[in-house]
Please model this.
Amino acid sequence: MKLSLALASLGLCIAPAFAEPIGWMILTSDEETWAETPESQKCIENWEEKVPLNEIYIKGNVTGATMECFVYNDSEKNCTGPSTALEEGLHKFPGDLYASSFLCVSS
Model:
């Protein structure tokens, strides 16, 4: 019985590590280009929050679903406060979009 409980609790600890990304985002600033592979409703911190973004390309990989991402400029980097909602596709900005965190959903 103890072994079963230990294995069950181990399984619960490992299960979140296998969450599937719902798509990807390619982010471009004046300094660099990088990719993120968000999981649904999981907040992603942006460590380059002081650098404005020029482009964000969003592409979902869940068949029959649409991916939408929210860009936050909150000082806590925890996906709270006002946000800019972006649907799949290429979004260009005139160098005035600052992002401290991102949250994507698939619907």
Residues 2-14 form the longest helix (13 residues). The chain has one helix and eight strands. Confidence is low (pLDDT under 50) at residues 1-15.
